[in-house]
Amino acid sequence: MKVLVSIDGSKHSVKAIDYLIKHANMFASKGSSLLVLHVEADAIPPEVTQYIPKKTINEWYADQGKKAVKASVAKLDAAGIKYKLIQKIGRVADTILEEAKASKSDMIVMGSHGHSSLMSLVMGSITTEVLSQAKQPVLIIK
């Protein structure tokens, strides 16, 4: 089984990693794989851009990405689980769906809420969008 897990550094995405570690048999068989995806939203806040020269915006994205994946990849490494890390910049829900399609993932795993400022009471807006448009099963970890 090819599993794509979307992480953003939130406590819910770390819980998704914990779930996958606990159920590592899902992607332990031959031909199975774990793809860890972090998508940095392509909108840098104005309070950040005023202090960063345009040539270092990519460095800012890279720093944000490192912070977002740090806890999750540390847990996977400590558990000895093999994975492929992909980091992208873009519209988050669309990028998750595009990567799931491109990688021919059998399942998407993600936390119920992320770092989005537009959270609903029950489920995060990005999670809701992925769930409504995904062609494969979506496992949501709360």
Structure commentary:
The protein is an alpha/beta fold and about 140 residues long. It has one domain: 3-Layer(aba) Sandwich (Rossmann fold), CATH 3.40.50.620. The chain contains five helices and five strands. The protein has helices at about 10-20, 45-50, 55-80, 90-100, 125-135, and strands spanning about 1-5, 35-40, 85-90, 105-110, 140. It has a five-stranded parallel sheet with strand order 3-2-1-4-5, sandwiched between helices. Helix 1 (about 10-20) links the parallel strand 1 (about 1-5) and strand 2. Helix 1 packs parallel to helix 3 and helix 4 runs parallel beside helix 5. The longest helix is centred in the middle third of the chain and has 23 residues, at about 55-80. It starts with a strand and ends with a strand.
Architecture, CATH level 2?
Answer: 3-Layer(aba) Sandwich
Q: Given this structure, which CATH class is correct? A: Alpha Beta
Q: How large, in whole angstroms, is the Cα Rg?
A: 15 Å
Question: Which superfamily, in CATH terms, is the homologous superfamily?
Answer: HUPs
Low-confidence stretches: 116-122
Span of the ends, CA to CA:
22 Å
Number of helices: 5
Order of helices and strands: EHEHHEHEHE
Instruction: Supply the number of structural domains.
Output: 1
Overall body shape: globular
Binned strand content: 15-25%
* Strand segment count: 5
Q: Provide the CATH topology.
A: Rossmann fold
Average residue-wise pLDDT: 88
Largest sheet: 5 strands, parallel
Structural class: alpha/beta
Walk across the major sheet and give the strand order: 3-2-1-4-5
Helix content: 40-55%
